[in-house]
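Model it.
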Amino acid sequence: MNSNFTKPELLAPAGNLVSALTAFDAGADAVYGGLKRFNARERTENFSSEEMSKLITYARSNGRKVYITFNTLIKESEIISAAEMLSEITALKPDAVIIQDMGVLHLIREYFPSLAIHGSTQMGIHNSEGVKAAASMGIKRVILERQVTMDEIRAIKSASPIEIELFIHGALCCSLSGKCLFSSFHGGFSGNRGKCKQPCRYNYFNGPNEGYYFSTRDLCSLELIPELKRIGIASLKIEGRLRKQDYVKNVVSAYRLMLDAVPEREQSTLNEAMDLLELSYGREFFTGFTSDKSFSDLIRPESSGVSGSLCGKVASIADGGFAVALSRKLHLGDRIRIQSKSGKKGTALTITEMTVNGRHITEGRSGETCFITTKDREILPDGFVYKIGESIDELTGRISRLPLALKRTIDFAVTVSKQGFNIQVKDGDSKLYWKKQIELAQAQKHPLNEEKIRSEFAAASSEILAPGEISAEVNGEFFIPLSILKEVRREFWKWAEENVSKDKSGEMSRACLESFLQFYGGLNFTDCDREKTTATNLDPTALTGLTTNESPGNEINSFVVNAARHVPISSSTEIILPHFCPESKLSELRSKIAEAYGRGIRRFRVTSIFQLGLLKNLKDLKLSSSYPLPVTNSLSICELRKTGLTKVQAWPELEEREIEMMIAKSEIPVEIYRYGRLPLMMTRAAIPASGEIRDTRGNRLALKKDDLTGLAYVYSDFVICIPEVSGSSDFFDFTNASPGEKNTSYFNSKSVWE
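Modeled.
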């Protein structure tokens, strides 16, 4: 480990103020949480602006950080609302905003530049070229795709110009991040917009067999922490904004122990930390993608996708509650979920009253049948009862005392020496200095320490200023009476009120919003020639998934080509680049692109931002976007146009009205995926089934495995068939569908995409 080693940040989930404060108490360096809209966990409680303001104020005064999640895809009709919320967030001054949408990236960088940008795992960045592309767009930190191996992480980190963040614990998605249509397939509720219905947790049928074929184990990277520290990862992230504070407390405490362990104590600390994790009521643990072989260990088809500890089964249902035949203990205050065998999300509740034979109890024991009182009428007969949490302090009084950051926050550094106090204040781009000379005595016991200084100076009495981030340094061991320390603090804040400039952040954020609204009002559709693209499967053994489109005039015919052979390709050919390319395959893909370019190919389809770096030095290119690179609004088109794209393909989850609105604001042609089978899910995990798969509603799915890329794809039995949209180009995809199939669907185009 080098001498410049910096311990990674421990980043914890915060679904509300209670969880956030609990995370900080347990040792988290930072928390992440969302406001009521535009975040990937809209099913959780989330924060009001006032609550987030209080949290940020508290964190700053205690040397911690807060990141706001803004990590969903944004529709055209939501652009102005999103800009208004970003204006509000700018005034809150979080440490960063976590984003997925390219349009939101454009909006923040161009109009709200004071906000630092972190690229969400939903962006699907999985190699060093993706990280470099993100950095070139102004992103300060990338949260990597979860399905990357340790060797890939090492290589990406060594080549990265910006910070890398990793998920280290919690629930995993079976699909590659940001590339899942599975939940939309089950009713239009998109996992890319924080409304996932978790169909990967359901029970499915494969021939005569059944199982939870897409339900992953939970990630647990405790034993990998020493290596991640050596690699130099900037931030280690715990998943769980839907989880309660007891989960947050136990998991954060476990990882804090492991992060702080000295090398000679790592093994004993690991055992202690694992004992803490046993209290978190998750699914079976999975160490992580230590190697390619790990993908075979991700799924246990025989195990339900339900988190928690199985405690019994519903024996009967009556007015006012239900009876449970217990197999494990339950207590008053425990949180439980009643779940069906199918794996579909069940009813969750907190136990407030229990009886056995009419007698009130505080604890139900194994072997007893206890009656749990509830007003919920959706209890499942024969449902399985899982314990998912325990009651802990709700911190009501503490939360009520949190200050609201309506005042301007200031960051300052306090240095104490024998001669007294020196304080440096950050005031915009400049620095101010305050000094208090006091002859400090040598301490006999209880010397003044940094924590006491931060605590005392955070207790501001100013009417117009509030403490932000406070750092402290004591050069020696000194004694100072508490009354004198308080007097120094009061003098400092009085001086600060008179000398620190007036906060203009609110005015600035409103001016930024007005500037954007003026720009957005001027965005207009550019009329252009319509093209028709038809994709067909010529050779199913395509190396690295390169696809070519031959274009006579405005009609383009697509073929999958085996790039290992020398196939005659005209100068008008278009190549669709593979959306997933592991780090070890980047050089091979780069060579294939150079080979195609040398044969006269100038048209390429970009399916992931990592490809932009591979193409940037090639001249006279005509670039288009294609699924699964999401384009859901005109601002994402603005951003992609800046990178050199001349045409984009609309995201297939969009409804028709939203596509029309996007086209009306687009400055380059928009293409519609009008016909074909798109994968509902794509994954590196080894799916323990093959061929046709059925769900409990009778829907049929097809599982296809690509031996060359190592990915598995899940397709529906229906074909997406979208009517023509005025002003757009057309894309017909026959790689997994035949022309004229009868089993078709409008997907979301005729309904509201949630």
